[in-house]
Predict the 3D structure of the following.
Amino acid sequence: MSKIAAAVLSSICIILFALPSSAQLLPKGNVYVGGSHSLSEIVVNKYDIWGFNASAEDFPLSRLPYFSVALDASGFYRPGITQYNFLLGPRFSKTYGNWRPFVHALGGLQRITTDGTTYNPIAIDFGGGVDRKLSVHVWRFKNFSWRVQADYVNTRYLSAREIEIRASTGLVWRF
């Protein structure tokens, strides 16, 4: 396992296990972990890549409840290709009953390793999705939602351009 994968996994564990005991760290927000599928076009080659997507979201301004800051990390794996994305940016959302649609514009770093060669281009991500509160007839899962998300990621490295369309789904823990 590479050092970056270990760092991402340990960060996710710290977020998931440390947040319940320290509400002052993120007073209002959510943590998302799910599976992801990416259709990537690197120069002229097209790839289907599977992996994970995780994010932490904080609502820093109580007067703007629809504005948040999102930190997004994802990893995709295929024989000969390993890709990690580390993105940060604003997310806008509005709650309508049990539904919470959102849009975001994120920027950050992408790390791609292909056949032993590593590239670190800047990535720009435009996307959105919807969270649906989970409920069952007997129980009400007050703090959990299910997320469906789609993203358009664009990177450039020297003269090469990568276009990536990504779909993710998974569990959201709201606090």
Observations:
- The first strand starts at residue 29 and ends at 42.
- The first helix runs from residue 3 to 18.
